[in-house]
Design goal:
six-stranded parallel beta sheet; 24% strand; 37% helix; alpha/beta; 356 residues; nine-stranded mixed beta sheet; 15 strands
Length: 356
């Protein structure tokens, strides 16, 4: 165990700044260097964070700094490359933004790199640290909803931004049970050209080994969450049981209706509150192998396989069994399979966002 762990953070966009600031604020970490390919953004971040070691070259910086933790918050087209840099630098843990990868082929490559190197990894599904998310998880785990039969999640944002969140938290509410198969459909080609390439709308079903069914909608056709004003936070995630239901709204608190009680409370996505425990759990895992991070790579990869299986089902039709066998390029599969034509949106705000 070290008194302080050295950290390098690559990518100084919004999320990179969140990570770097949270590492810097935790006394168990030393921010040993930052990286961004945009020099002006890099200089501004260095001044804000009080960091002198900076570089536009992530590999050179990481190899020079020899961090305990290599964190990257880049666009999703750089996942495997960044994981290799982290491993080459000698880092004991790699912290990365979601999604795990853009294709199952790359996801398998990353999984194999981590397994063969023995390097730990976490994926930033940090919303689960929100008090409103925690309240729903506690309610489900208490048995107050009876036997859980359905978990569900909706988001108006598009797949590569939001689907891994929806899947991660529905899996969490379901005790991280193993998924056996999925079936999905997709529509709309506009966001396939985005930096987070996605169909404009994707929706489907998940069947879990414990008999629970999952229902997911993500994108233009997803329903409004009228309780939430901010478009990106219009996410509804919950669980239904034989004796009630509980759900969290990313930007609008939580609610529980059961035989025992009908109650609700506040809460909204807040990086200032969610990031500190996520970062602290990294230190805890580095201190003690037994204190596995709640956002560990194995859990995120199980959700990633569900997302890629959704894409395969939408592209090829029918059910897709899990775990996936062999890697593929699901984005190219969708580009070939999805018909031309504008997606049909569920509300005006979605139609505006998905106008391509």
């Amino acid at each position: 165990m070290k008194d302080r762990y050295r950290v390098v953070v690559a990518g100084m966009g919004k999320r990179g700044i969140h990570h770097a600031a949270a590492f810097g604020a935790n006394p168990r970490f030393e921010l040993a260097g930052i990286c961004d390919i945009d020099e002006a953004r890099l200089d501004a971040a260095a001044a804000k964070l009080g960091v002198t070691a900076k570089s536009k070259d992530a590999r050179a910086l990481a190899l020079a700094a020899r961090p305990d933790v290599f964190c990257f918050c880049t666009l999703p087209n750089l996942r495997a490359e960044m994981v290799r840099i982290g491993i080459e630098s000698g880092a004991r843990l790699i912290a990365m933004e979601k999604p795990v990868a853009l294709t199952s082929a790359e996801g398998l490559e990353i999984r194999d790199l981590l397994q063969s190197s023995g390097v730990k990894a976490v994926v930033s599904h940090q919303h689960r640290y929100g008090a409103h998310y925690q309240k729903v998880k506690e309610t489900v785990a208490s048995g107050g909803l009876g036997r859980i039969h359905t978990v569900y999640g909706t988001s108006t944002g598009w797949m590569m931004h939001m689907l891994s969140h929806l899947v991660d938290y529905t899996r969490w509410f379901n005790g991280e049970a193993r998924a056996e198969w999925v079936m999905a459909q997709a529509s709309g080609r506009g966001k396939l050209a985005d930096g987070h390439p996605s169909p404009d709308y994707i929706a489907g079903f998940i069947h879990f080994a414990n008999g629970v069914h999952g229902i997911i909608e993500c994108g233009a056709g997803a329903p409004d969450v009228p309780e939430v004003d901010q478009w990106w936070r219009k996410c509804r995630i919950g669980a239904q049981g034989t004796e009630g239901f509980a759900e969290v709204l990313t930007g609008g608190g939580w609610r529980v209706v059961s035989k025992q009680a009908s109650c609700s409370g506040g809460g909204s996505m807040n990086y200032d509150l969610d990031m500190p425990p996520y970062i602290q759990h990294i230190a805890d895992w580095l201190d003690d192998e037994r204190q596995v991070h709640p956002c560990h790579f194995g859990s995120a990869y199980a959700g990633f396989e569900i997302m890629m299986a959704f894409c395969r089902s939408a592209a090829e039709g029918g059910q897709v069994a899990l775990p996936l066998v062999g890697g593929a390029n699901e984005i190219e599969m969708l580009k070939e399979a999805l018909p031309q034509g504008r997606v049909l949106a569920s509300m005006a705000a979605n139609a505006k966002e998905y106008s391509a």
